[in-house]
Specification:
Layout: H1 2-78, E1 95-96, E2 101-107, E3 133-137, E4 143-151, E5 158-163, E6 173-175, E7 184-190, E8 196-202, E9 209-216
Parallel strand pairs: 1-3
Antiparallel strand pairs: 2-9, 3-8, 4-7, 4-9, 5-6, 5-8
Length: 217
Amino acid sequence: MTRWLVLSMALLMAMGCGDDDGPAVDEDAGAGVDASTPIDAGPRDASTPVDAGGDDAAATDAGALDASADGDAGADASSPDADTGEEGDTCERAIDVTAGVALTGQSTMTATDDYGPMGPGCPAGGAASGRDLVYVVSPAAQTTYRVRVTPTTPSFDPLLYAVRACGGTGCVAGTTLNDAGEPEEITFTVDAGAIVYVVVDGELSSRGTFDLAVTLE
């Protein structure tokens, strides 16, 4: 009887120890599975903003392309404005006669009235000058020029002068000695690399056609 009790108690103790070990293993295993879930989810979730960022960057690139397209369009739209007006109508569009030239059929009839001679060396009558055409000389070596304007419209009275800066005060040379329909002529020297503008204007707002001769002395 005593041996039976000892065996029974030993069996119960062995069974009790097995029960304690079982739950401990189950809890550890469960904890291992649960812990892996956020680790797996973390990288996948984290990849979403990265992918989204790439999409956003692409959108930014698209915006940059759109902006550049607009820039090109703006440049194209401004192109016509960069080259307006008739040749010779202003100093910016002056006709180059540096090498000397003989031009016929010149006209101030459709030109604009942009300039008038004012100051030392200029002919009188600048305040009432008419429409004008501009020519330019810029020699590589010091050169003396003779410029002659011959009206082909009898009512045209040329006002002829040369300036270093259009719209400024003072002339290199200038004349309005003769009557309407008669030629006017000036002579002046230009230093190497310098620029001088020759303006064919009209006294008392006269305008008309003319021939222009530029010769090197």
